[in-house]
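Lab notebook: predicted structure, single chain.

Context: the supervisor wants predicted structures on file for every construct in the current expression panel, including those that have not yet been purified. This is the next one on the list. No modifications to the sequence; it matches the entry in the shared construct table.
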Amino acid sequence: ATALQVHVSGDDIGKTFRQSGVRLPRWQGAFDIKAGMRATPAGLRIDGLDGSIGESTLRVDALVPLDDSLDGLDVTIEATGPDLEALLADSVDVDVPDVDWAASAHLRRIHEQMLVENLSVRIAETTVTGDLDLPWPADLGSGDFRLEAKGPDLSRILPRISQFRPSAVPFEFLLNGKVAEGNWQFQLARLQLDQTRIELSGTFDQLPDFSATDLTIDVSLPDLSRLGTWAESPLPDAPLHVTTHLTGATDDLMFDEIHMEVGESKIDGSFRYTGSGEVPFYGIEIASERIDLRRLLPPPVDREAAPQPEDGRVIPDMPLPLE
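Prediction complete. Output recorded below exactly as produced.
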C-alpha cells in the first residue's frame, strides 16, 4: 500500500496559493495544513486532513474514487472559528458579523446523485440544518432540499435593506421542497418572526415561462411596529393580514383573490403582469368598503392644531409644511 504524509504552512495563505497559480478568496493570515493519504482499492483515503487559517480550523476525512464518475465519494467536513468577520470580511461585499461560527456536513456520491447530509451551520446562536439531494454532474435546475433555521435575533444576520432596520426578534424558518425541470415546488416554506408568520406553498415556474406557477401565499403580522423602523421612525402600530393566489401562463403572472386587512382597512383586488408585448403590461384592480389610513400615517406636526377627524373622512385633516 502507498501512504503519504503532507504538511504545508506559511505566513500568508493568499500569497502562497497565488504564487502556486491557485485562485482563492481574498483570505489572509497564517495557515497550517496536515494530511495523511493512502491508496486503497476503493480510491484515495484521506485520514484526517487538519488545517487552520488564522484561528479558524478545518477537519476533513474522505474517500476519493480515482475514476472520473466519482461514484462512491464520501467526505466528512467540520470547520469552526471564533470570528467570522476576520475570515470573510475581505472576501464578500456584505457586512459580516464579528461572531463565532461552526459548520459541518457529510457528502456522498451515489448513483448519479450528490447527497449533502447532516448539513449544519451555526453563526453565533443562529443555526441552519438540512439535507440536499442534488444530481451529479451538478445541475441547479433539479434536486430535493430540506432546510431549517432558527435563532434569537434575525437582525444580526440580515443585510441592510435601504432604510429599514429590523427589530431584535427570534425567528424560525422552514423550507421543504424540490426543483424539477426548472420548477420550484414548495411543499412548505414558512418564516416565523416573533408573532409574525409568512407561509408559501405550491409551484413557481422558472423564467420566462410561468405556465406551471401555482402558489398560495399567507402573511400575518399582528403588529407592524414590532418588525423594526424605517428611516429611524417606527412602523405603524397596526396589524396586517394578506392572502393571495399566484398563478401563471406562458407570459403572464396573476395575483388572484388578493385579500388584505391592514389596521381597520379591508382591501380586495387582483394584479396581472404580461410580458409578451413590446412593452410589459401591468394591471391592478382594487375594491374596498372601508379604507382608514389614520393608523398608517405619521402623526400630525401639531396634534392640537390638527386633531384626528371623527367625521369618517378617508384622508385626515393634516397640515402639510410648504415652502
